[in-house]
Write a structure and sequence with these properties.
Blueprint (H helix, E strand, L loop, with lengths): L8 H9 L2 H15 L1 E7 L2 E2 L2 E2 L10 E5 L3 H6 L7 E6 H14 L3 E7 L2 E6 H16 L4
Parallel strand pairs: 4-6
Antiparallel strand pairs: 1-2, 1-5, 3-4, 6-7
Helix pairs in contact: 2-5, 4-5
Length: 139
């Protein structure tokens, strides 16, 4: 896992202004490149969000995830919620299957409660595709 450098203020500002789908696509590539995602945790564990607009036929709740610590910190509801990192392998092999079993999804790079919602397996597949594209032999 390579530690992702902090985003420059203008880069962060530009990302925050993008629509949820574009932020999610950027996030998938960034997670693949740095092999680390960020969520929020409180005294009870991972913070889960109730989706304002559930995925048709999908979950009503989702685990919000962000590509960088500073992005997660911006969305903390207060001092009781702190950013928590998770490496790509643990995310893919443990956390995403677990939230899928619970019937939850993933809310990718949410800003002010607006993010791209995915079913857990769909997010996992897209993340795997982003990682494979990054690691493919160019020949």
């Amino acid at each position: 896992m390579s530690e992702a450098p902090a985003l420059a203020p203008q880069e962060l500002e530009a990302l925050l202004k993008q629509d949820p789908l574009r932020r999610a696509q950027w996030m998938l590539n960034d997670l693949a490149a740095h092999e680390c995602a960020w969520g929020l945790e409180d005294g009870q564990g991972w913070v889960i969000a109730k989706l304002a607009t559930p995925i048709p036929g999908g979950p009503a709740y989702a685990l919000p995830l962000w590509p960088r610590q500073e992005c997660a910190a911006l969305e903390a509801a207060g001092p009781g919620e702190q950013p928590r990192s998770i490496d790509l392998e643990t995310l893919m092999e443990e956390l995403l299957p677990e939230i899928g079993e619970r019937g939850w999804g993933v809310l990718a790079f949410c800003v002010k409660n607006a993010g791209q919602a995915y079913k857990a397996d769909e997010f996992s597949n897209q993340l795997a595709d982003a990682w494979e594209a990054l690691t493919e032999d160019p020949d």
